[in-house]
Design brief:
The protein has 141 residues and is mainly α. The chain has a domain of 64 residues. The protein is 50% helix and 0% strand.
Length: 141
């Protein structure tokens, strides 16, 4: 027997399924307002969205924010691409904050050195004034 020998197996005959029948839906005119849970503006928005003439991208509909009870946490689903973008942005912000902190520390160090130098110059100036006053006093006494 070869690996690729052609053996014909008897296939069972296919059974034909009965045709699918969908329930009859009521027409739009027969619906009473009490049977629908949406207001007319929502219904017209849905009609515009599914109409064959709507080739334009759908407009963003701002949804009112829902208040959540403090104890109820709902799962949050985020696209991986968006998550990676957010993480990259956060890492970039961390780097920039670290750089800003380093710069601020350097400025503080420079300011301390400047104050130290100014204090030294002020002390030297006071010493020179005292010596000058001593010389002036000695000469004019």
């Amino acid at each position: 027997m070869g690996l690729f020998s052609s053996k014909k197996k008897d296939k069972p005959e296919r059974m034909e399924l009965p045709p699918l029948r969908f329930p009859d839906l009521p027409h739009e005119e027969s619906l009473e307002p009490s049977q629908t849970d949406m207001n007319p503006s929502e219904a017209s928005a849905i009609k515009r969205a599914v109409s064959p003439l709507s080739f334009a991208p759908p407009k963003r509909i701002e949804m009112p924010e829902m208040e959540q009870a403090e104890g109820s946490e709902k799962p949050l689903f985020v696209k991986v691409e968006k998550y990676r973008e957010v993480m990259a942005t956060i890492n970039e912000l961390k780097d920039k904050l670290k750089d800003a902190g380093d710069i601020l520390n350097e400025l503080s160090r420079i300011k301390e050195e400047e104050e130290s130098e100014l204090t030294t110059w002020q002390n030297d100036l006071e010493a020179i004034k005292e010596k000058l006053m001593a010389i002036d006093k000695t000469l004019f006494e």
